[in-house]
């Protein structure tokens, strides 16, 4: 992934500072960057969605392509207003479709067009949208897919490690099939102890555990798992803020990698 | 009553005969005719003897000053202890002993410093009043009975009416004057507030008894100085003459006190911390705590004391006293009495007409007290020997005891040394959540998706609330209702709307059991912890540490020997939750669920060890049964307590001063309401099946939360009658075949004794007419092998269920810490000794962790799994002991046979292994108790060897997804490849710097990696593959249009045609062989992709044609499919010349498949930049 086009300067300097620390891997830095960028976008989301803003962006787009349809009009507009290109493309596409059709387009239509811009009735807009999508490093269907793939890869990695350690488990799909209402990545059929803590489930998070995302995960996922399956382990593969690992006694253990000191129920007679 | 005592003292009557007389209504053939004659005249008084005796002892000991740290059962009402009171009428000139009623000071003082817990002195009116009203005694005395606070229902009905005594005429020593005769231990104060034991009120004496002194009769145990709570209508009292002027206001105060108490009881069942102030201003009582040395040689009247001790002991032995442990506590108070208060002149005055033998005080000195106490203790040794090790040690070390009875001391020392800590394996306290069980919790169990999802959310809200409570409930100022109330009620609203209460109640109940079952969860200290800590310290420091411990411990749990029902620890959460929820639906579902679970557990067939032949006595054989029994019993008690709480919640409130009419109407209303659970039937069944040891303890918990009306309802009254009958039948000294086991009896006596002291239980209940008891004979011979005759109760369970027994130890400990002039009082500086690990969490041992793991293993599995494993371990373990075979061969087979077939292999293997371990452990435990260490080591080694050779079979590896077994999954990750292709696409689409580009080798490598990854597929998921397929098609379009910027000199920014074909062929091969998802090849001929060609100069139609032909060749697309796509391309608007070129392409494609390359060149047409044109399209 290259640096994002719509990249705020303040963040850049932050990244550069972090990058000098040799201990942090590039992936971790990218994960942290991605989270920071997302926070930035969330903060400014509303101001780009006022009807005045949308109208003004759309007019600027129309003027731009009228002058030169091959120029990266939409991408430059996104960069200029400091907004994610894919999201800008969505704004313009929605506005464009609204003009052409009476009813506002459904979300699934928009998403489908963003995934495959060749469905967009306007060739120039299709190219502009496509350009935004392939140049966006934090949003858009391609980035979503990459994120999903990264998550999946780490789950696979974890699964293999569990198999390697001979730990029997039920995965998310199996749990869902049995009607579980909340499903961690893996439930251990036989619990193990990690650093003296019993764990029943393991959740893989292919991201950096920062305060904001961790609290959201705690509320939406980790406590829910605890509420159903008891204590468990979260692996933040790209690291986490150490201070967040404060619920160990309560039953939520954080790790940045697969734990090495797993104690299993040993069956010899002591 | 005094007459009997006097007869005894005059030796006209043997103690045995007297006790027989007291205990049984009918005369026995053993009775000496002379004695019988002596007693028959006293027959109407028989029932009043015990209350009289108990109160007599209290009164007699009132001048003894136990001291030391707050000891339970002290009433603050003693005159010297309460200097600051005011407002009461001045005491009579002769002292209060001539008054019939305690002076007002006593109760006002009580009001001032006695918090809720001291319910001792209450006289509950309604019970006896009703009894009188309906009973043979007739209504004529009904109202009058109420007005006389001390004329309680103790008085037998028969003597109730015509022969009402006119007490006022006599001038008995006023034993009810708490100033003169404070209940035992009335001194220091502190814990006074929590002493709930009750002091019984004077009973009116019938005329014939008026000859004897004293004229007043007291019922049971000591302590509170408030003799009555009866509402009074003084004027109507037939015995009303002579009421002191302060009586009415006294009644009022009692009323207030009672209200206050029941309010507190309801609001904060946890006893308030006692204050020490009450007695402190009187240094004469509290400051000089030096104990008088007790000297056996200075005992005043051996004979008399011995006789009374004998009678008293016999009453205890016959269960004629309501609360065994309260009496023991009293006796220990006597043993540890510090000094005698100097008697006032008036106290020493001889009461006119008093019979000599009772004329002088029974206890004239500390020596007398100690002598008496030791005599009683000698007769209670059997009970003492079953107390915990700490109590035994304190008793054995008590210098007075040694001095007065070396023999008893020797026995106690031996008991202490021989005391094995029979502590069942304590389960680690699990503050875990209730596990999700698909069979009860998944969607299929809900009526709608909405209900399912509502419950999903409510489960999380519940735990959120619980976690917040855990974090904050100890913060000062935090309030449950304020903090969580609205959230809980919102939750209730949601549950009602979704009709999911039954699901939530199941969760609530399971969580309750999980959190509160273990003693730790109940907030109590677990027995046996202290000794471990002590063992870590040097012997020389033990004393100091122990004193520190005692001091730390004593104030915390000064609930006294009869604390009111409380909701300690986590139970408080559940109680407050119910209160805050205030949801009728929730409560109803909860009661339904609790009742069902109670029935289920109560009827659980607890596994019984096979009738063992040789080693039947072995304790180890019983460990498993005990543990299971303890778990079931503790669960039942908890459930029953909450059932009682919820069921009687609507009726709870301050005890109302009921008029007869009001009471009758309430009773007629309530008596038609069916009981929430048919406890009477369950009790009867339990007694018949000889399972009282299981049923009674939970029933007591249930009844302890009843409201004041409940004991008056016929239904519950009969339950109490059954319990009383049972209580009387539990004679500890009877130990024969088929009898209930000693500790079983002791547990029942303890819990029943406690129940009889609960404020809501009328005091007179215990001294019911025996005739009623006889009627309710229960046939208990039905089942010979009931639980009752099995040693299911151990010491730990006894103390867990009845933590108040620990008050005995505290009392003794306070003697140790406060006694002796060694340091001048018990408040000494104690220098704490430290040792490593103290205070901190002890490092987790491997064994501990393993035990936790085994425990945790069952957490997320259905409960049946655990039951099966434990059952197998139990059975096999027992068999092993018998036949010395080894466990690991049999257990797995047994487990396998019992578990469902679909049990996963890993679960099965763990379950089997746990069963093996448990069985082996059990066998080893037996062995360790029976075989020498050497043999044990060999056995263990053999077991380990066998286990090692068997080894756990490696779990089957999950199937490989797509790649060969040899694959080591070194292919690049899909996410990396998507990311790299995305970079190429963005470079091609632009914007880009002029010098930017990719090397052709890089593209080849990228496609190579893509191929590797698609062949490995280890990390690939369908969405990633779909995106990769789409991106590869985009890439092909860019290749065909020559739009990929190539690194190199500016002139060569294009890919060589050969390279481009090579790359296209790679892509074709990937599409053909490696992608497993549909590849959107039709994208190649979408207008947007084809338009890319318009930008190319010169046009490279040949690559497109090549690609299309290859697609057909490789059967990736059908010819017709491509033609259709090309056809549809015409529909788009193209510049004229581009349309022509498209037409040419179409024709070429439709022609011969293998067109020479030169012909393709024909398609290369020089065109001006078409960007503008396209933009306009």
TrEMBL record, chain A:
InterPro entries: CDIN1. GO terms for biological process: erythrocyte differentiation. The keyword Nucleus applies. It holds the Pfam family TPD. Keywords: Cytoplasm, Nucleus. Its main location: cytoplasm. GO terms for cellular component: cytoplasm; nucleus. It is found in: Cytoplasm; Nucleus. It comes from the Eukaryota. PANTHER family: CDAN1-INTERACTING NUCLEASE 1 (PTHR31661:SF1), SIMILAR TO CDNA SEQUENCE BC052040 (PTHR31661). This is CDAN1-interacting nuclease 1.
